[in-house]
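User:
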Amino acid sequence: MDDAAFDSALIAAAFQMVAERGWARLSVAEAAGAASLPLARARERFPSRAAILLRFGRLADQAALAETPADGTTRDKLFYLLMRRIDTLQAHRAGVLALLHDLAAHPATALLLALANRRSMRWMLGAAGVPAVGVNGELRVKGLLAVWLWTIRTWRTDDSTDLSATMAALDTALQRAERAAAWLGWRQREPGQSPAEPEAAAPEEPPPAAPA
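Assistant: Predicted structure:
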């Protein structure tokens, strides 16, 4: 079993355990035993529960970045990338929901997830061709993180098979973020638009900020 298959098997067992017991009672050793995985290798690759979350986040990023869309608007690309991340969460839905429910009692874990998600959003922006460095880049990262959190809030209660409510929430949040970016003068030149083509005028008043 290669590392990717090993990690996927242990993560699946871990989230099943979280769904049944909650985050506080998750044991890496017991998850490895439940998945019939060698304990020594589990210790090497997942020295703590936090390592499970970090690796899971990287797997979600890899799933999103595996087929980065080359065509479409920036909003289209971000929609695709973020929905691919949600597909990874959906595969372990019960465990992820249990984890999110328990975060209030585990502030250190909540902070870890916040930092990991921020790093992931920087990757999503880069994949969509949006600059994510410097002061403006940090603001873009925070804006996309707000989009992500708003979407996850809807996903938590979306029990539809096609995640239609989640997709609608994501599209709405991205539209708001796009209007905010235009107001700040950050509008991206989309495919087919010539450098000399004038951009739409910024609105006189700022649009509603993306919900946090």
